[in-house]
Amino acid sequence: MSVTNIKYTRKKLKNGLEVVLAPMPKNPTVTAIILFKIGSRYENEKYAGISHFLEHIVFKGNKLYRTPQELAAAIDALGGSFNAFTSKEFTGFHIKLGSEFLEIALRWLGQLVTTPLIPINDVETERKVILEEINMYNDTPTAQIGYIFEELIFPKSPLGRNIIGSEKSLREIKQGQLVDHFEKNYLPTNAVLAIAGDLSGLKDKKNSLDEYFKFRTGCRENIRNEDNPNKQGKNLQKVRAVYKKTDQTHLVLGAKTFSYLDKRRYPLALISTIMGGGMSSWAFSEIREKRGLAYYVRSSTELHKDTGSYSINAGLNNEKLELAVKEIIKLFGRARNKLVSLQELKKAKDHLIGGMLLERETSEDIASLIGSEIAIRGKVTPFSEEVRMIRSVSRTELKLLAERLFAPDMLFLAFIGPWKKKDEQNLAKLIK
Questions:
Q1: Residue 205: band (very low, low, confident or very high) from pLDDT cuts 50, 70, 90
Q2: What secondary structure letter does DSSP report for 290?
Q3: How many Cβ atoms from other residues are within 10 Å of residue 37's Cβ?
Q4: Is 420 or 77 the better-scoring residue by pLDDT?
Q5: CATH topology for 239-428?
Q6: What's the pLDDT at 300?
């Protein structure tokens, strides 16, 4: 199978589970990923972090593998790998094994997400583990500053809350809430299963997927909490300083964007590449190479179903914070006020398309790609169509988008380091 021509089929199981199959003949590995359309933005504040908590708990045992040791050993013994994640809008579980172990992978994954035991003793133990995870992130400024920026840019919205929750909300989550969350959201009609690799093991096993993914009956459909993250209140805070005794300041400076369904995601991806997408980007060249202000400086784009954000992130000398902010603001101004060169645009397009090729190499890449595309957009956009859309973006489109998104009064700034309220007020003058 050519990485530029992913062939896949879609079908629904009797229980309503959407299945996407991407055969990769003679591939040595197979990957299965199941995505549930539930994440932190659909939680109420009291139980914030419950999706992530449940993601942890399902690994504590199920009807087939009664303990976490049994569950892990079944895959470790075969040299496989497995993991899970929780995002703002999805919770995902994936497993990768040698292709000869396809049936084992599917049985293991099916049991993981359909028959978790959610034992009360493990709930209490895992709460302590997650509290330590929070402590780890709080001790890591590069991670913490991202959460602060999201809180700033999406105030009073679940999108502005930390996916993992808070110490307060975690203490509210008991076994009963986890069981309820599972029964409401881990539904076949609320999920997409993607499998990529050598799928010859599925031949002549017509109903095998129905057998592996037997969801419990009587599940209740969840009524999701919906909010409007784009609603702007009065006296919106645009700059936030967080005090932490550190030898380096970490900052995020950026703006709100739009949905992952918006076709402007292609010019935004090119702007991101040009401004901070590599060692030859504007930000790296100006902030690190020319002025030596930062060790790392890069672009970040995060898109959701109805909004999003773009930012430049940097870790820099404490004494150079104001200068670095001014220089990054200049980069936003450069994108707004001047057409990029034809050479820059071509290089960005080649860079973006090359990266897309690298994201299509393995069974894990393909399963993740088709699973997320079906879950997010309801279809997989052909590689040729994505290339066409990227190649068609003009310099004028980039400038117009930058004008709309990156005006000074549209920018938000969060920074963490040995700073106080007065420093926040001083830098706020730069974002008018």
A1: low
A2: I
A3: 19
A4: 77
A5: Cytochrome Bc1 Complex; Chain A, domain 1 (3.30.830)
A6: 96
**Above 50 in pLDDT, residue 154?**
yes
CA-to-CA dists, residue 325 to 41, 140, 296, 426, angstroms = 30, 21, 14, 12
What distance in Å separates the CA atoms of residue 184 and residue 172, rounded to the nearest whole number?
18
Work out whether strand 18-23 and strand 9-12 pair parallel, antiparallel, or are unpaired. Answer: antiparallel
Whole-angstrom Cα distance, residue 205 to residue 203? Answer: 5
SS3 labels along 204-237: CCCCHHHHHCCCCCCCCCCCCCCCCCCCCCCCCC
| pTM beyond 0.70, yes or no | yes
Contact assessment for residue 38 and residue 50, using Cβ atoms and an 8 Å cutoff: no
The confidence band for 221, taking pLDDT boundaries of 50, 70 and 90, is low
| DSSP code of residue 379 | S
Residue 209, pLDDT above cutoff 70: yes
* Dist CA 367 CA 195 (whole Å): 6
> Can you read off the two tokens belonging to residue 15?
């229980």
Q: Give me 201's structure tokens.
A: 């093991």
Read off the amino acid at residue 231. K
CATH topology for 9-212? Cytochrome Bc1 Complex; Chain A, domain 1 (3.30.830)
**Residue 156 DSSP symbol:** T
Query: What is the C-alpha separation between 77 and 97, in angstroms, rounded?
Result: 11
d(CA 9, CA 374): 11
Task: Work out the burial of residue 419: count CB atoms within 10 Å of its CB; fewer than 13 is exposed, 13-18 middle, 19 or more buried.
Answer: buried
Cα 399 from Cα 406, distance rounded (Å): 10
Tell me the average pLDDT across 180-189. 95
pLDDT tens digits for range 314-343: 999 999 999 999 999 999 999 999 999 999
Task: Find where tokens 């993992």 sit.
Answer: 164
Q: What's the gap between Cα 74 and its chain centre?
A: 28
The answer to whether residues 172 and 130 touch, using CB atoms and an 8 Å cutoff, is: no
pLDDT for res 1: 46
3-state secondary structure of 238: coil
Question: What average pLDDT is seen over the chain?
Answer: 93
Residues 167-188 have a mean pLDDT of 96
The beta-strand segments (E) located in 47-206 are 81-86, 91-98, 191-197
User: Alpha-carbon distance 271 to 293, whole Å?
Assistant: 22
Cα–Cα distance for residue pair 46/49, rounded to 1 Å: 9
Give ranges for CATH 3.30.830.10 in the chain. 9-212, 239-428
